[in-house]
Backbone:
């Protein structure tokens, strides 16, 4: 067997936790940049479009293109990464890249087929997302979505190059592309603002930014892989058993994407219900209300799940049950440790946070208050969303891709039922957000129950004590944050209100998190001790 200097090697058990932490920090740093760019971009989009029908058009059009891309992204990651990584270790780089080349050309072929079909069927696709939207609104959505399809090819190939970089544990280069994608959209949003573009011109400007971001996302991947691209083979060996194995893994993953994206289509469709009458751009309102929580998931849990996956795959290959258990439990504890206080603080400071982030331009105080209830409901699901990423990876690492898919089917049905009942009972957008949080939490609990038999003995008493400590510390942190923000919130109508509100929210949140950290140290929470050791390194 041969290996390359860049190829993944077996990590000694004693250093696995540090390796995962370093990988998570590296990925998280770029995703923090992405988060900051996103925080700058989304309010600019909101300020340009408000919660008018144009906001709905942009939200739906970009969701359609993103959903098409995610069919590739979510299928490729789980189906190709473990096989490519194993091939690097066992067969050497040249043989591994024969498999990689085949997946590259198959992905290109699939994109060439999917994009024209989507273009021609776009009116039907838009209708699937719509209820109360007018004919004119639907036609404009079709135009914007068709324009956005120009970036699909760059996105699908970037999903594949992302996998290759992760196999080489080049996490930072992979994550940089995501940050640059958001930068492209930010550039267009700034241009629309400084040029004082009329609202009907803002939509194409933002869409061109989406396309630019798609190109920028791929660029750093190709640069980081430049020394390996010479191994690309222009022949596909259809008899390669690795292709068959990838196809078998891809089937449940693809069905899982059908489920998750079908859920997203339903979410947009029901958000456009005639029963939701308090806002014109109801689909955009729902999207804006989950922007903050989604961005937070993209920083730590997403980075952790990417960083942990190669190590979980190695542990599964080596049949190291103890190491696998320790890694999974440690990752789940990390998610709980980070997101328990964040959840509590977001809920108690919902209105100040939303006003600080969103209010301005065409986005009014009334629009901000529309977001409050669904924002709270999404915040309640933060821990479930965080743990879902890690639990999914634990099954994929063991090549048990069917399990999350089957569980996802059941929880998607739960989401549809709960959201439909809630909207019909008059709970509006909060019902949709609450149903999603409920379904994600149930999915995590179910996945944990299914994963438990494959783990070694757990330290139940120790973990329950840990849970009790972080609950107490989180409640104290939330109380302090709420009291402080009530004191330092600026008065209505003062100069630079938005900046002062941002400062008030930032200071109150920081005080809450510092108090949480201090209490964790006093209560000797293991995760806080590990953070201190890592910081000193």
Residues:
């Amino acid at each position: 067997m041969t290996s390359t200097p860049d190829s993944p090697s077996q990590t000694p058990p004693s250093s696995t936790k540090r390796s995962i932490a370093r990988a998570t920090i590296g990925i998280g740093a770029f995703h923090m940049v992405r988060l900051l760019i996103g925080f700058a971009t989304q309010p600019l989009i909101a300020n340009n479009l408000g919660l008018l029908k144009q906001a709905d058009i942009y939200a739906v059009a970009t969701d359609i293109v993103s959903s098409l891309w995610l069919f590739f992204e979510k299928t490729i990651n789980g189906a190709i990464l473990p096989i490519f990584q194993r091939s690097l270790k066992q067969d050497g780089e040249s043989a591994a890249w024969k498999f990689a080349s085949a997946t590259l050309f198959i992905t290109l072929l699939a994109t060439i087929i999917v994009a024209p079909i989507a273009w021609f069927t776009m009116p039907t696709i838009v209708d699937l997302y719509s209820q109360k939207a007018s004919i004119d609104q639907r036609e404009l959505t079709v135009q914007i979505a068709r324009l956005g399809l120009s970036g699909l090819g760059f996105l699908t190939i970037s999903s594949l190059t992302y996998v290759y970089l992760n196999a080489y544990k080049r996490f930072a280069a992979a994550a940089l592309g995501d940050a640059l994608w958001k930068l492209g959209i930010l550039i267009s949003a700034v241009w629309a603002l400084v040029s004082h573009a009329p609202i009907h011109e803002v939509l194409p400007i933002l869409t061109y930014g989406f396309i630019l971001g798609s190109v920028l996302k791929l660029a750093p991947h190709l640069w980081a892989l430049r020394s390996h691209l010479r191994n690309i083979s222009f022949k596909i060996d259809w008899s390669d058993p690795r292709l068959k194995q990838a196809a078998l893994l891809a089937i449940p993953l693809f069905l899982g994407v059908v489920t998750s994206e079908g859920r997203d289509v339903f979410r947009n469709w029901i958000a456009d219900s005639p029963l939701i009458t308090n806002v014109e751009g109801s689909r955009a309102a729902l999207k804006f209300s989950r922007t903050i929580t989604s961005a937070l998931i993209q920083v730590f849990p997403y980075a952790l799940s990417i960083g942990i996956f190669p190590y979980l795959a190695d542990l599964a290959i080596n049949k190291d049950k103890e190491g696998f258990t320790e890694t999974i439990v440690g990752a789940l504890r990390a998610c709980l440790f980070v997101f328990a206080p964040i959840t509590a603080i977001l809920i108690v400071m919902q209105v100040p946070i939303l006003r600080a982030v969103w209010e301005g331009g065409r986005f009014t105080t009334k629009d901000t208050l529309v977001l409050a209830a669904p924002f709270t409901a999404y915040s309640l699901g933060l821990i479930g969303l965080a743990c879902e990423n890690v639990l999914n990876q634990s099954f994929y690492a063991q090549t048990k891709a069917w399990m999350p898919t089957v569980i996802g089917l059941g929880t998607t049905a739960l989401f549809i039922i709960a959201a439909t009942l809630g909207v019909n009972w008059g709970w509006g957008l909060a019902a949709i957000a609450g149903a999603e949080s409920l379904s994600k939490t149930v999915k995590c609990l179910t996945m944990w129950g299914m994963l438990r038999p494959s783990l070694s003995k757990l330290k139940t008493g120790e973990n329950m004590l840990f849970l009790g400590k972080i609950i107490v510390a989180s409640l104290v942190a939330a109380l302090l944050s709420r009291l402080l923000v009530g004191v330092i919130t600026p008065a209505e109508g003062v100069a630079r209100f938005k900046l002062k509100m941002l400062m008030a929210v930032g200071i109150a949140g920081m005080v809450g998190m510092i108090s949480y950290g201090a209490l964790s140290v006093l209560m000797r929470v293991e995760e806080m001790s590990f953070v201190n050791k890592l910081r000193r390194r």
Summary: Confidence is low (pLDDT under 50) at residues 1-14.
